Amino acid sequence: MAAATTSCSSAIYAASETLAKPSSRSFSATSLALQSSSSKLAIKSLRLSGCGSALGARMVAAPAVKAPALLDFDSTVFKKEKINLAGHDEYIVRGGRDLFHLLPDAFKGIKQIGVIGWGSQGPAQAQNLRDSLAEAKSNIVVKIGLRKGSRSFAEARAAGFTEESGTLGDIWETVSGSDLVMLLISDSAQADNYEKIFSHMKPNSILGLSHGFLLGHLQSIGLDFPKNISVIAVCPKGMGPSVRRLYVQGKEINGAGINASFAVHQDVDGRATDVALAWSVALGSPFTFATTLEQEYKSDIFGERGILLGAVHGVVESLFRRYTEMGMDEDLAYKNTVESITGIISRTISTKGMLAVYNALSEDEKRIFEKAYSASYYPCMDILYECYEDVASGSEIRSVVLAGRRFYVREYSFSL
Ligand SMILES: NC(=O)c1ccc[n+]([C@@H]2O[C@H](COP(=O)([O-])OP(=O)(O)OC[C@H]3O[C@@H](n4cnc5c(N)ncnc54)[C@H](OP(=O)(O)O)[C@@H]3O)[C@@H](O)[C@H]2O)c1
Q: Which GO terms describe its biological process (predicted)?
C-alpha cells in the first residue's frame, strides 16, 4: 500500500482552494434530507465555496465568549479543589483508586444499583462499579436490567452478571428493586419510556443519567422529573469501551481513566452530590467537574453535531472532492483525506495546540493558511450558532426522538 503523501501544508492548501473555488459537483440534497443537524453542518460547510476571497488574507480575531458561571457544590466525603483552566476557576474532585474506600460511605443507604441497558456505557459502567465496590469490600449489588428478549442477556452473562446471583434481570424488576437506577438505555428509548420508568422507581430513590437528553425532552414537552426522587448525572467524556479500557489500565498506570462531568438536578434528601461523586470515582474518572443537566445536553449535543459529526464529515468531504477535482486518483485522495484528519495535523493540535500548526508552516504556507482560516471562520461560526439554536430550542432533541421511532417502526415491520 502506497504511503499517503499528505503533509500539514498540502491539506491546508487543498482546504483553502476548496473554499476559494466553487465545487463543480452538485450535492444530492434528497439523500441527506432525512439526516439531522450533524449532516446539516457538513452540507453547509461545503456551501462555503466561493466566500474565501471576500475576507482576504487577514487573520480574524476570535470574538469574546462569556465564561460560564462557577458551579459550586459541597461534599461531606470527597475533597473539592478549585482549579484554573484557561483563566476560569472551576471546582473539581480528583479521582483515584486510593479513594475507593470512601465509596461505602458516599453510597450510604444504597443496597442495589441497577444498571439499565447494555449498549456502550452499560457494560463499562457496570463492570467498573462492580470492580471498585469489590475493592472497597462493599456489599452493594450491581444488577443489570434488560428488556424482555434482549440479545444483551448473553453478553452480560459473559461479563459475569447472572440471574442466579441476582445481578441480572428484567428491566422493570431491576428499576423497582434499586436504590440508584443508572438509566443507560438509548436516549430515544428514555424519551419513549420515561413514564413507565418513573412509575417503577421507589420513592426517595435516585435516578442516574449519563446525559441530559431526558431533561431536554421533558422540557420540550413542558414536563419535569417526579418530585419524589433525586436526579443526578455522571457523564463520562468518552465512549463506553474506553471508559472500561482506561479503568483497567488504571490498575497499573496511575491516573489512567476518562474524565466525567456530574450534575445534581434534584436532591430529595441531601445524598445526591456524594452519590454522584462516588459514581464518578467508582468509574475511574481522574477528574470530575460540575455541570448542570441543561448545560450537559446543550454542550454535548452541540459539540457532537457541530464537531464530531458535522465538521469532521465536512472536512473529509471537501478534501476528497478537492483532491479528485485536482486529478488525484480516488485511492490516493482517500488516503490523503484520512491522513489529514488522523495524521500530523490532529497529532499536532492534540499535543501542542492549534497555533503550533500555524507556527510550523513556511511564510508562503502561512499566507495560504490565513486565507483558508479567515474565509471559513465567520461562515463556520454562523453554522455552529445555527446548530446550537437547533439544540437549545429542542428541535434537535425532537428529531432524535422521531428518528428513534422510525427505527422501531422499521424493526417492527421487518419482523412481521
Ligand atoms: N455512547 C457513548 O459513548 C456515550 C457517552 C456518554 C454518555 N452516553 C449516554 O449514555 C446513555 C446510554 O447510551 P449508550 O450509547 O451506552 O447506549 P445505546 O447504544 O444508545 O443504547 C443501547 C441500550 O439501550 C437499550 N434499549 C434500546 N431501546 C430500548 C427500549 N425501547 N427499551 C429498553 N431498552 C432499550 C438496548 O437494549 P438491548 O440491549 O436489548 O438492545 C441497549 O441495551 C445515553 O444517555 C447516552 O447519551 C453515551
A: isoleucine biosynthetic process; L-valine biosynthetic process
Q: Which position has the grid cell 487543498?
A: 14
- pLDDT at position 295 over 50: yes
Find the domain containing 125 and state its range. Answer: 80-290
The closest of 188, 288, 285 to 242, measured between CA atoms, is 285
Residue 31 confidence (pLDDT): 28
Final residue before a domain boundary, out of 290, 325, 351: 290
Query: Is 105 assigned to a binding site?
Result: no
Q: What is the pTM of this model?
A: 0.81
Question: What local confidence, expressed as pLDDT, does residue 23 receive?
Answer: 34
Cβ neighbors of 73 (< 8 A, separation 6 or more) are 80, 91, 264, 273, 290
- Name the pLDDT band for 93 (thresholds 50, 70, 90): very high
Residues with CB under 6 A from ligand 1: 117-122, 146-147, 150, 152, 171, 184-187, 189, 193, 210-211, 213, 235-236, 239-240
Q: In what order do the strands lie in the sheet with 88-94?
A: 81-85, 88-94, 287-290, 260-266, 230-236, 206-209, 180-183, 112-116, 141-146, 168-170
Q: Is 300 annotated as a binding residue?
A: yes
Closest Cα to atom 8 of ligand 1: 210
Pair (141, 281) in one structural domain: yes
Residues 321, 278: one domain?
no
Task: Calculate the average pLDDT of the chain.
Answer: 86
